[in-house]
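Hey team,

Filing this mostly as a record. A colleague (T.K.) asked me to run one chain through the structure pipeline before their review meeting, and I want the input and output archived in the tracker in case anyone asks later how it was produced. No errors, nothing strange. Just documentation.

Input sequence:
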Amino acid sequence: MFSIQNDCLSVTIHSKGAELKSLYNKHTGIGYLWSGDPAYWAKTSPVLFPIVGTLKNDAFNYAGHSYHLGRHGFARDMDFTVTDETPSSITFTLTSNDATLQKFPFPFHFDIIYSLAKDELKVGYRVVNTGGNTMYFSLGAHPAFNVPLIPGSDYADYYLEFDKTENAGRWPISKDGLIEATSVPLLDNTQVLPLTKELFRDDAIVFKKLRSTSVSLLSNRSPHGLRFDYSGFPYLGIWAANNADFVCIEPWCGIADSVSSNQQLEDKEGVNSLPPNDIFERSWMVKVF
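Output structure:
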């Protein structure tokens, strides 16, 4: 386990999956990140790479070959190497190898950079295509935040507030983990999504191309919460395990296959294409209070 800190925040990260394990505010004494209780969901903030969500039949086709890849890809279960470290920042690196190339036929260099500034944690992603062909991939985050944040409050006291008024439906997920063909109304000229555990009975809420680039976790009974900025991520997932006391805010550059997917990687909705030697960078930030 590795840690970084500044005057306000203390953060721990595990080298397996370069997964964020804790986010603690020294001033308020609040721990913002889910504990990873395996009775509900054993992870805390997995990275989703080189795919987001589920592939149709857990497979994709590329250059005449079929490749098998499980939900959310392999990075979350692999050991990253620390390649740079200061008291308030740390970089974890994953490089393609023979095992990854059997599942995903593209050489790559993948950095995850954690850095602190005052009361804000920034998580940056850098993907470098080290191969000779255009690389097709998806990338996403999956951090889980405690709800409720403080004793004496309940799950239903909390809500998500987007920075812009939204008219957006949720895209249902099939029993096979695929995105259905049509959306279902959810946000109707509002910035607010009240949190209830019933919201997630049928899996995650999936949004496409919201107007907002940030969302805040707020409470009717406490001044404490967080602001989550996800500019540059065209898809957003909101999820919690059944009856668990957390909510995941998931910015994605990519999305699960649709029920009508032809399984061709180049045709995949939301897929990112990266020419040889090019660099793809995205970041999200969470400000706690």
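Quick notes for T.K.: Residues 98-103 form the longest helix (6 residues). The chain has one domain: 2-288.
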